[in-house]
Amino acid sequence: MTRPVLRVKDLRLSYPARGASGVVHAVRGVDIQVAAGEVVALVGESGCGKSSLARAILQLRRPDTGHVLLEGPDGTLPLHQLTGGALRRARRWIQGVFQDPYASLDPRMSIGDTVAEPLRAFGLASGTTSRERVAALLERVGLGAALATRFPHELSGGQRQRVGIARALASEPRVVVLDEAVSALDVSLRAQVLNLLLDLRRDLDLAMLFITHDLAVVRALADRVAVMYLGELVEIATRDALLQTPRHPYTRALLDAVPVPDPVLQAARVSRPLGGEPPSQERVPKGCAFASRCPVAEERCASERPTMRTVGGSAVSCHLA
Questions:
Q1: Is the CA virtual torsion 219, 220, 223, 229 positive or negative?
Q2: Which pLDDT value is given to residue 270?
Q3: What DSSP line would sit under 85-135, residue for residue?
Q4: What pTM was estimated for this model as a whole?
């Protein structure tokens, strides 16, 4: 891997528990890196902390502790330390695309104004130059320049998501964090947006952190995959290594839950559904967070927390991997 443009070190984020005096530990000591031109997929079941991690990286929610380091044109930017104007300027180099294309666009702003907003905010263009840049960005994401005069309610879901991508690209960022960016789209639109992202990664050398629960998206898009469970990463591997030889029991359970598109092979599969529910994020277990649901757990798993180690080229947090 080339030099990372995004480095996240020991990131932790918690929220006050609703209706109680406790604390929800949403992100617990996450380390992750993304290089230029690389797509890292972050996967895990709902509620495991993926979106909280995205918000902490983008500084939409300030982390409790940890480091978020971004390689800007003039050196390393410690996003976790920046405030005010310094943070505002740094946001040019890291942008987000969010899950709901209906909620992420201002309904009172035209598409042209929406895409031009980063150009104004960072002083990149104005007047005729801005309009030309907006037209070029809309063309780049497969939308005609004529859509600049329309409003979000006049567009389909797929078109709105492309507008969100165009807006993210307007500031010429080095990193884009995409949080379930295709989950609200139907299958045909999803394929179009994924193909668009692959083209942008190749042409612009973008680093992408792509958050998803859909392993079919992982297979199509990712270079590496990070698996998250109860706020922490349990396995990081290349896409092919993880899909072919998963090392962590939770990763194997995720892959076992994906149907095989062949009725004969699907019928022959041995189903091993996970039992129980994930532990409460207010009372994190002392040992391995997955121990209470793990089919191969031993006594020490409940009392001794595993550390991330290399097994067969994959990084995995499991005593028994």
A1: negative
A2: 67
A3: HHHHHHGGGEEEE-S-TTTSS-TTS-HHHHHHHHHHHTT---HHHHHHHHH
A4: 0.91
Helix or strand (DSSP H, E) at 1: none
The rounded distance, in Å, linking the Cα atoms of 301 and 220 is 34
Cβ atoms 176, 34 nearer than 8 A: no
301 close to 285: Cβ distance less than 8 angstroms: no
Phi, psi for residue 5 in degrees, rounded to 5: -95, -15
Minimum mean pLDDT among 61-70, 187-196, 236-245, 272-281: which range?
272-281
State the distance between the two ends of the chain, measured CA to CA, in whole angstroms: 24
**The pLDDT value given to residue 52:** 95
Is 174:36 a contact under the CB 8 Å cutoff?
yes
> How much is the average pLDDT of 25-41?
95
Which residue, among 180, 173, 175, has the nearest Cα to 194 in the 3D structure?
Answer: 180
Phi, psi of 297 (to 5 degrees): -65, 145
Contact predicate 231/317, CB 8 Å: no
pLDDT, tens only, 80-90: 999 999 999 99
The CATH class of 4-245 is: alpha beta
CA distance 21 to 173: 40
| Bridge partners of residue 175, in order along the sequence | 94, 207
DSSP codes, 238-291: EHHHHHHS--SHHHHHHHHTSPPS-HHHHHHS---PPPS-PPPTTS--SS-TTT
Number of residues that make up the chain: 321
What is the helix (H) or strand (E) element at residue 81, kind and residue range? none
Specify whether the CB–CB gap between 227 and 43 falls below 8 A.
yes
- Boundaries of every domain in the chain: 4-245
CA 109 remoteness from chain centre = 27
Residues 6+ apart with CB under 8 A from 127: none
Angstrom distance (rounded) from CA 134 to CA 51: 29
* Strand ranges for 124-223 from DSSP E: 175-179, 207-211
